[in-house]
Write a sequence for this structure.
């Protein structure tokens, strides 16, 4: 199944296309993303962060996405995002995820390679795609002191790809998770050096705060997957809050969600257009 994903991402890198991954939390935001992807006739990646996978169980997340495949015009790839646990990756693989990310970026390079090797070995027989990370994505609890702290080292990317063999690699090139006070400065020079050094499709994290032109430029330089999360869940939570606040005593989930889903869908369509300017 994910051999197909891995080869799709290789094709995307070769053709300067990019798969959008959206962090989803439940049936309602997934519904909005699926409708948006249908609107533009695109496949997408539904990504669960570890708290979502742990709260609901990877098995239920798989079944939820299976359900949406009935209404999706194109493939939905289910991905475990930013797992720092090898065991959680194995669980997701056992439960049929198409793709898992083992994030060893907070460890030294040797440990990162070792963790990635273990997940790649486990994923291979199941045909599951593996994403690894070098460098750091800023924001949230990641505090960096200097560029050396977060910028992916080319030598480390090469070592990780050669020794562990992940399918795709997330690279720290200046982006941050979530809303940032100023637009993050992307280090395109470093992206070019990395893309020249390894053939793997590269992944851009922190999609919410990246300017459209930077997204598009990075896609011409080896980025074949982009992760977008905060803009989706904050729209979802804000709009839900606004609707509930109108009459809290009468708040009934399907009536609230009927109004919230199209607003989340609108935001997702906007981001999908930024990633696919040819549409
Ligand atoms: P944003 O929340 O900034 O969109 O980033 C999402 C992400 O990179 C998930 O891995």
């Amino acid at each position: 199944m994910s051999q197909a994903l891995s080869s799709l991402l290789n094709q995307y890198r070769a053709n300067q296309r990019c798969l959008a991954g959206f962090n989803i939390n439940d049936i309602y935001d997934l519904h909005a993303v699926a409708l948006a992807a249908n609107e533009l006739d695109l496949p997408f990646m539904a990504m669960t962060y570890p708290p979502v996978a742990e709260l609901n169980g990877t098995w239920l997340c798989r079944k939820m996405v299976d359900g949406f495949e009935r209404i999706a015009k194109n493939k939905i790839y289910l991905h475990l995002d930013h797992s720092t646990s090898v065991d959680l990756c194995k669980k997701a693989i056992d439960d049929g995820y198409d793709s898992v990310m083992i994030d060893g970026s907070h460890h030294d390079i040797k440990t990162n390679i070792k963790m990635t090797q273990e997940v790649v070995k486990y994923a291979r027989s199941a045909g599951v795609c593996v994403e690894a990370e070098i460098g750091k994505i800023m924001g949230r609890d990641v505090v960096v002191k200097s560029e050396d702290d977060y910028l992916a080292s080319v030598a480390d990317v090469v070592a990780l790809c050669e020794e562990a063999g992940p399918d795709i690699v997330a690279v720290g090139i200046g982006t941050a998770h979530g809303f940032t006070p100023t637009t993050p400065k992307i280090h395109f020079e470093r992206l070019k050096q990395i893309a020249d050094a390894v053939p793997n499709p590269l992944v851009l994290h922190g999609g919410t705060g990246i300017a459209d032109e930077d997204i598009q430029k990075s896609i011409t330089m080896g980025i074949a997957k982009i992760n977008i999360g905060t803009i989706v869940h904050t729209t979802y939570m804000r709009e839900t809050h606004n609707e509930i606040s109108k009459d809290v005593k009468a708040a009934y989930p399907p009536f609230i969600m009927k109004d919230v889903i199209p607003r989340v869908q609108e935001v997702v369509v906007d981001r999908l257009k930024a990633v696919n300017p040819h549409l």
Remarks:
- The two ends are 27 Å apart (CA to CA).
- DSSP finds twelve helices and eight strands in the chain.
- The longest strand covers residues 76-83.
